[in-house]
Amino acid sequence: MKKEVFTGSFTQQEPIPEAAQAAALRVMQSGRLHRYNTAPGEVSEVALLEQEFAAWTGARHALAVASGGYALATALRALGVGPGDKVLTNAFTLAPVPGAIASVGAEPVFVEVTEALVIDLDDLAAKLGEADVLLLSHMRGHIADMDRLMEICNAAGVRVVEDCAHTMGARWNGVMSGRHGVIGAYSTQTYKHMNSGEGGLLITDDAELAARMVMLSGSYMLFERHGAAPGPEAFEAVKYHTPNVSGRMDNLRAAILRPQLAELDAQCARWNERYRTVEAGLRGTPGLDLVDRPQGEAYVMSSFQFLLLDWPPDAVAEVIDKCAARGVELKWFGGAEPAGFTSRYDSWRYAPSAPMPQTDRILAGLLDLRLPLTFSLDDCAQIARIIREEVTDLYRRGAPASD
């Protein structure tokens, strides 16, 4: 029997909504792309986005910036992290996270990951004395027990910055991702939940931190033109002492994002339908472990992960190759060399780490695929069938057995 082949694209996103296209055209026709270039009485698209994002998350303050990575570095700078400092972070994350730490001259202290693909809270507790900031990556949309995490961090005086690049709209026990720590950072890069090509957002309830981040972003002395910044009194203590590290969002990207924000809850529900379809199709596959989702987590999954735990590398590579031959693109976080967007902690040689045996075991068997909204539910079911067939075939032939 001829094997079915998937013909869709794992990198093709949906078109930008028509309302966003029209808004972008209006900005281009005006020529006023810079966030502070406004007509008399006009509120910029960026300021409006900040107001709307603050309202959507329930935060007091929001700031729109040029990228998610810039947002992370800005959060660290606002907290006073600098050269020689150490910052706790997940060993399982993507390169912009240790990159943000390195960009301020600090050093990552990596924390192990669990089979649930979240930060290991026991290892975190053991390392809390090494730093006073945790840059927590909700990697690939998986959220740790935030109640316990915040309890142990608060008790140790460790401030938490949440990297919510993969969890925009997700919640833990009803609390929006990004609202547990002192600062939440988000990305609007093409493969995230809102698409402006590049872009980032920051939220906080702390007026002084918000003022520092606004000044860092390159507001000059135009902070009163921000839509969700604190009042002018918050800037008095910081405006002469905070460097301008320009990374503003422009009106074009904000215009593209505002209509997407209005539809985000519905879009998140569509992503989860696709996630659950793949999950149902893979459940019970011999040799394949799915990631258990805790009851307290309300996820938003624009990607899917599964584990081939303790399979030898050549067998994992064979699964990847056989699925690729049938049109299914899998990324492997356990590969010996970084590839594309995928790398692991020992690839970042500017941030050396002690061996992480628990994380090594998990990454060695971790496979990942995107779930763009251009996929139908039937597409997702087909993808699951192909993966299931190839994993099952190799498993039954004894491929996972170690030498």
CATH class of the largest domain: Alpha Beta
Which percent range fits the helix content? 25-40%
CATH topology name of the largest domain, in short, is Aspartate Aminotransferase, domain 2
Named at the architecture level, the CATH assignment of the largest domain is 3-Layer(aba) Sandwich
Strand content: 5-15%
Helix and strand content put the structural class at: alpha/beta
Number of strands: 14
Overall number of structural domains: 2
Summarize the main sheet. Answer: 7 strands, mixed
**Gyration radius over CA:** 22 Å
Report the average pLDDT across residues: 96
H-E string: HHEHEHEHEHEEEEEHHHHEEEHEHEH
Q: Supply the number of helical segments.
A: 13
Q: How are strands sequenced across the largest beta sheet? A: 1-9-8-5-4-2-3
Summarize the structure in words.
The protein has two domains: 18-262, Aspartate Aminotransferase, domain 2; 264-396, Aspartate Aminotransferase, domain 1, CATH 3.90.1150. By secondary structure, the chain is α/β, with parallel strands linked by helices. The strands form three sheets. It has a seven-stranded mixed sheet, with helices on both faces. The protein starts with 17 loop residues before the first helix and ends in a 7-residue tail after the last helix. α2 runs parallel beside α9 (251-262), α3 packs across α4 and α11 packs across α13. α4 (96-103) links the parallel β2 and β3 (107-111). It is 37% helix and 14% strand.
